[in-house]
Amino acid sequence: MPDFSTRCFVCGKETDPQNDKMNKQFNLPVCRECEGTDREKKAIEELLEGMAEGFVCGCI
Ligand SMILES: [Zn+2]
Question: 23 phi and psi, to 5 degrees?
Fold first, then answer.
């Protein structure tokens, strides 16, 4: 499990809190290379899908 507080949630690269952005929706760091790209959108979709699955499983 990567540490999402210091790594870009899209590519997993270590981020620099001084220079890199946060994704405001999830409060996760995203590096400048990934910010605003299709890869970032895809990573967000996967996060949302993972959360939805978690909710379904939690009901059983
Ligand atoms: Zn990145």
Answer: -80, 115
